[in-house]
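Protein: Flagellar biosynthetic protein FlhB
Species: Halobacillus salinarum
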Amino acid sequence: MLKLNLQYFAADEKTEKATPKKRQDTRKKGQVPKSQDVNTGFLLLMVFGLLFLMGGSLKGTLTGMFEHTFQEYISWEVTENQVYDVFVESLLEISKVVVPIMGIAIVAGVTSNLLQVGVMFTGEPLKMDLKKIDPIQGAKKIFSARALVELVKSLLKITVVGTITFSIIWMNKETMMEVSQMSIDGALAFFGRTTILMGLASALALLLLSVLDYSYQKYDHEKNIRMSKKDIKDEHKNIEGDPQIKSKIKEKQRQMAASRMMSEVPEADVVITNPTHFAIAVKYDEEKFDAPYVVAKGVDFLALKIKEVAKAHEIVTVENRPLARALYQKSDIDQPIDEEFYKAVAEILAYVYRIQKKV
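Structure follows.
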């Protein structure tokens, strides 16, 4: 008994790699290895890269808008039309700054997801699931090993980003102390360069950390989708079909085929028998085939049924043991007989036609 229990637990232990079908099913549910740090790092890199390349142009757009505001708008009369014009023109100028940043952010988000999971559309994560608001399950997640890993990751990211930003500020502390002596343009340029430098450095650091995080996410995903030997067997049964069910389906198909075959027996010209073990119903229709063809055949019980139907419909039965056995083995239903049987079958048909006074 103990040995059987041990075998059961061994079969149920998740030790096997996930099958392609298992991977496909989990992907349909939206369960794929993915690191949010890849998205964050790539997003920061793209946005601060845009600011590095277009910062001067964006700054010029904003300062130009403010100059126009204090030089032109301030002297306008406050009317409904004037307020509308100010709103529209200001919105257009702000859009010149916001749209490129929002656009590059969207491109970065889509690209980072495509790099990790490829093209995937699924609504499974959006479905209502009461387990997601289960306080017991929530507590288990909070105090789980995964939660501890996420905490360590967060602390590591805060430490790395904090160290980078502090180092950059520390390296520029002397210039920062002299900002009060600079012009507005000089101060803005300094803070802009420093901010972009901190952003790019932090983005690169997060991307390096994301490589480790993605490796962990992939390992954790593979661990979660592992299968037991029993799972693989069950999946194989579901794909191929349960042997008992397949056997029943085949039996049902045989019964249906036999039923269709029996319906063709009344149309036969002759039934050639063994006489007890084999029965082959043969018909000749020159419009269908150039040679006689088999409309039904059977052995033992099925042969008996064929002979009963033939008798009920007054179909001539001819006993020819070697011919009956050979036709059963070498002929297919609704197919012409082989050439080697032409002469023997022709003689039998001639005999039948004479009996029925067809010739």
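Remarks: The chain has two domains: 21-119+133-237, 253-355.
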